Amino acid sequence: MMTVDTPILIALATNAVSALAIALGALWLSGIARRQIAALAEKNAKLDVTLMRFAGSVVSYLILAVAVIFILGRFGIETTSLAALLGAAGLAIGLALQGTLSNVAAGVMLIGFRPFKVGDYIRAAGQSGTVSAVTLFTTELTTPDNVQIIVPNGDIFSSAITNYSYHKTRRCDLAFGVSYDSDLKKAETILRDCIRADARAHGDPEPFVKVSNLGDSSVDFTVRVWCDSSDYWGMKFDLTRAVKEAFDASGIEIPFPTQTVIRSAA
Question: Is residue 142 within a helix (H) or strand (E), and if so which, with residue range?
């Protein structure tokens, strides 16, 4: 019957407990480091939030990597042997994890080129939302209805990125149709009055209000108004309603498509 020496069992148990303690300590420390580094940006306005959160993510993974080396050392695996082993397996690991490594490289590029920052509303890789975090592997977006979307950095960096928050101002484009019997001068005056009544509308550049199209059932006005980026949707919705109510009060008809069916005699 095979027996196992008690000292060996004690040594294995001791190493296992030590490894568990190191792992738990590393997880705790990596979480603390990530939060503390990210919090630096909140305490100092000169520090960029996106950069500090990314740095926190990198430091967190470095702490975990060091912990793995210590754990292997507890079981008698020399670091020099480990380096040789990693070197020999480097090609295989690189091929197996090329997607993951590309995400890391893309994350570094996103931080370097800064096409967006935390708090910006963007569209990339077919997804839209407010950037909540840029980590070593992924970018986290939050949609307007408060849904979290996690997108690999490689997908974002390899796609066109639309940053709706990059500029402080945006142009709001609207279209309104009036009937052919309407007084076009009066309709234009109403449109300009509605724009002036909205404090969010900028006077410079001057709002654009022109007849742009003679449709099948309406004369179409194109309206272009500049506003702060943060006011875009609110002004767009409110201005649309204000124009409708002002047209109704002034007797300006907003037509809808009609179709006349002529039946031939049998």
Answer: strand 138-142
